[in-house]
Every structure is written in structure tokens, then in C-alpha cells.
Amino acid sequence: MSSPVPISQLSRSLKQASLSPKKEVSTSPTSTYLDSAPRPRATTFDRSKKALKPFSTGDIKMLILENINQTALDTFHDKGYQVEFYKTSLPEDVLIEKIKDVQVIGVRSKTKLTAKVLSHAKNLIAIGCFCIGTNQVDLEYAADHGICVFNSPFCNSRSVAEMTLAEVIGLSRQLGDRVMEMHQGVWNKKSAKCWEVRGKTLGIVGYGHIGSQLSVLAEALGMRVLYYDILSLMALGNSEQVATLDEVLGESDFVTLHVPETPETRKMISTAQIAMMKDGAYLLNNCRGSVVDIPALVEALKLGKLAGAALDVYPAEPRKNGPDFKGDLFPELEELKSMKNVILTPHIGGSTEEAQSAIGIEVSNALSNYINEGTSTGAVNFPEVALRGLDWDQQNAVRILYIHQNVPGVLRTVNQILSDHNIEKQFSDSRGNVAYLMADISNVNLDDIKSIYEKLENTPYRIITRLLY
Ligand SMILES: NC(=O)c1ccc[n+]([C@@H]2O[C@H](COP(=O)([O-])OP(=O)(O)OC[C@H]3O[C@@H](n4cnc5c(N)ncnc54)[C@H](O)[C@@H]3O)[C@@H](O)[C@H]2O)c1
């Protein structure tokens, strides 16, 4: 057994540990799964396949804003790209100046990539949104100009599921109220209307990435899980899918919402739905603010129909951190803030170090796969095209990436240009106004490649042509 460490020494070593630049993933005293799990790479390295790249990856210039996670910077560094990195977003005039020159820009939610800003980006081929949403980017303008946009919609599913589970217990034990009372110096030891969650029913509305993770976690606590989804989805564990929303509402002690924002989900929980819930049940909304009718919820809490609620998302949210979560955002906010057993959090369901790290890995890999191989799988505004690799020892081959307007006759023109050569494989897909063709051509020399490139560049409906070796 090792001898005990004196407190003075322990606090010194803890300070040193937290200053260490290597601890970038988590400052938690316990290690996270990311510390031990192997990090996914851009693609599984296959010795039989040739690694493709543009003429020179050193020529790929990236503008990376808003303090994107180190995992992404590591990927870009490994690939040899030139990265200009900023911790913040940039004022529009500076952004316009900087975007002129780069092939890739990486942003989070604060940088607005409007048509005006993008019109100055003469070399841009891809945008990485290192977040869930993409409404900060004019996706249509980007697609029409051959700019492929990637995001990371599901890397934080586990984080949301874990927080939801914490709130289920928090509501059941009135933890929020007790914590607030203690901070105000009030000792209020009580057990009335505080419950264990074991044996209670959790109703999940929307059994997608988050809902299904939550289902597994809740069953581990001994909860019964019911779920409702518009799709017929395989149940995990012992959970059960029910046919209607009414059924899930009527049978659950806790109802938790995990649906996307659509016209159908707008105010899907209002007075009529709350009336169907058990007396003294709890409602949790960690999906989108528009899904719950807030006046109906406030009324139900006032009447004691519901015993509590947890909200992470709101009909309107402040744009920045600070003391702006106030009544002018939406009318019932001040009343909601004053209510008992109501947990309010600032849209942090997905905000963990692990989620940020995973987002960095996913989006940077998508970007480098697109730059180096042309693969657009996972793009949000663009045809999704991928081609298996060229053989490892294959010389004199080139990969053609041809983005063009989606109009009749283009493929005939392109195939005429390529038909003098050996087309090993090709694939093409379209989405809206834009189409994307990938083709591997073998037995070509430099003059052939130059000629193919020039002919493709001169086709009338071309948007961007790229060649990879
Ligand atoms: N609080 C946060 O920080 C945070 C973080 C991530 C995601 N979210 C939100 O959580 C929600 C769920 O995310 P996800 O990743 O699980 O999405 P997902 O797309 O994986 O799952 C959504 C599920 O809802 C189902 N669905 C759609 N319309 C429905 C309807 N009318 N009735 C019942 N089911 C319906 C879909 O079939 C799907 O199975 C989204 O709204 C997302 O924006 C919030």
C-alpha cells in the first residue's frame, strides 16, 4: 500500500495537473472514456488502397474560428493543412477579408456565413459547422456555388441523455428546490412527495439518438420505459413502443421530449396533452423550445396537475451568456422562474467536454475526407457521393471531382471528355440545383490530366472541378 500524501503536496500536484497543456479533453479528476478509447481516424487505413490528396495539402488554407476543439486542430495538423485559428468569431468586414483566400472555413454558431460573406470566398470548397445546427450558413447559396457543408448532429446524444436522467431524479427528489434553499441558508429536510425512480414509468417521445440512449440508462435504474415515435423502431432492452402519444402521456410518471422541430411537433404538448398526463407527473423538455406550449405548462404547474418540470430549451433564448434570461424573452418567463420544482438550464443538454471533442473529430474527418478523397458523405446541403479507393500501387491514375448544375445533358458532355480514357469507376448524384460526379481514370499521363481538366473547366454547367492524385 502506498503511504498517504500530505495535503500540501496533494494540492500542489493537483494545481500542476490542471495546468498541464496535455489535459485538453477533460479536467475531471477521474478519467473519461475518451482518455482510453482509441480516437477514430479519418478513414480506416487500408494498405491495399492508395492515399489520395490534392496536388499539395500544404496549399490547403483553412480559417478556423470560435475556439474549435483541439481534436480538430490535431487532425488538420496531421494532414498538413495551413490553419489560421481564432478563439472568437470575427467582425463581418474582417471575415470577408479573410474568407477570400481560404479553401475551408470552420465555425460554430456565432459566425454568420451569409450569401454576402460567401460571395467574397473565391476558393472556398467546404464549410465545417462544429456544432449541431447549420442555420448560421446560407446552405442554398453554398450548394449553388459548389461549397459542401458538414456538421455533427449526433455527437452529443449521450450528454443529453445523461442530463435528462439526472433531471428525472432531480425532479423526483425536488433537488433543485433543496439546493436553492440551502444556498439561501434554509435547512428543509423533508420526504413528503419525494420519490425513488425505481419502478416508475418513463415515457419517451421521440426514440431517436437521444431517446434510445436514455431508454437504456433509465432501465438500468429499474424504470419501466415506454416510447412513442412516428416510426416503428426496435425497442432496446425491455422498453416498449406504444402506438399513440396519448398512451405514453396517460401511462407515464415522467414524460420526456426528444423530437425534432417540425410543423407537427410545434406545441405538441399543450393543455389537451397535459390533461391526459397522470396527476402529479413530471414533464421534461430538452429538445426544442417550440415543442411545449409554455402558458399551458405554467397553468398545469400552478394547478398542481404536474409536480414539476425541467426545461433546457425555450421559445426564445438569449444570444449570449450573461444576465439576459429575463421576462422580455417570452411572457411567462418570470412566472416560470419563480415556480417550485422547476429545473431551468441554459440549453446545456449537449454541452460537455466529451461532446465537443467528438464533434471536433467528426467534422474535421468529414472535411479532410472531402478535401483528400472527394467523399461528401454526411454533407447537409450537397449530393452525398463516395467512391472506393484506388489500388495502393496504381500509378498514372487520377480522381476527378466535378460539381455542376443539375441540368440535362451534362453527363453526356462529361462522358465524351472522359471516353478516350479508361474510366475505372464513376458515381454521380444530384440534390436540388447541384450534381456531383466522381470518377477514377487510369492510364493517364500529365498531359492527359491537364487536357481533361481544361475541357471540364470549359463545360458550360461546371461549378467546381478538382483533381486528386
Ligand atoms: N438540449 C440540447 O442541448 C440538445 C442537444 C442535442 C439535440 N437536441 C434536440 O433533441 C432533439 C432530438 O435529437 P436526436 O438527436 O435524438 O434526434 P433524432 O433525429 O435522432 O430523433 C428524433 C426522433 O423523433 C422522431 N419524431 C419525429 N417527429 C415526431 C413526432 N411528431 N412524434 C413522435 N416522434 C417524432 C423521429 O422519428 C426520430 O426517431 C432534437 O430536437 C434536437 O434538436 C437538444
TrEMBL record:
It is an enzyme of class 1 (oxidoreductase). Coiled coil: none annotated. Residues 1-19 have a biased composition (Polar residues). PROSITE patterns: ACT, D_2_HYDROXYACID_DH_1, D_2_HYDROXYACID_DH_2, D_2_HYDROXYACID_DH_3. Its EC number is 1.1.1.399, 1.1.1.95. Keywords: Amino-acid biosynthesis, NAD, Oxidoreductase, Phosphoprotein, Serine biosynthesis. It catalyses: (2R)-3-phosphoglycerate + NAD(+) = 3-phosphooxypyruvate + NADH + H(+); (R)-2-hydroxyglutarate + NAD(+) = 2-oxoglutarate + NADH + H(+). The keyword Metal-binding does not apply. Residues 1-41 are annotated as: Disordered. Residues 399-469 form the ACT domain. Pathway: Amino-acid biosynthesis; L-serine biosynthesis; L-serine from 3-phospho-D-glycerate: step 1/3. One of its GO terms (molecular function) is 2-oxoglutarate reductase activity. It holds the Pfam family 2-Hacid_dh. Gene3D superfamilies: 3.30.70.260, NAD(P)-binding Rossmann-like Domain. GO terms for biological process: L-serine biosynthetic process. InterPro entries: ACT-like_dom_sf, ACT_dom, D-iso_2-hydroxyacid_DH_PdxB, D-isomer_2_OHA_DH_cat_dom, D-isomer_DH_CS, D-isomer_DH_CS1, D-isomer_DH_NAD-bd, NAD(P)-bd_dom_sf. Catalyzes the reversible oxidation of 3-phospho-D-glycerate to 3-phosphonooxypyruvate, the first step of the phosphorylated L-serine biosynthesis pathway. Also catalyzes the reversible oxidation of 2-hydroxyglutarate to 2-oxoglutarate. PANTHER family: D-ISOMER SPECIFIC 2-HYDROXYACID DEHYDROGENASE CATALYTIC DOMAIN-CONTAINING PROTEIN-RELATED (PTHR43761:SF1), D-ISOMER SPECIFIC 2-HYDROXYACID DEHYDROGENASE FAMILY PROTEIN (AFU_ORTHOLOGUE AFUA_1G13630) (PTHR43761). Belongs to the D-isomer specific 2-hydroxyacid dehydrogenase family. This is 2-oxoglutarate reductase. It comes from Dekkera bruxellensis (Brettanomyces custersii). The lineage of its organism: Eukaryota, Fungi, Dikarya, Ascomycota, Saccharomycotina. The gene is SER33.
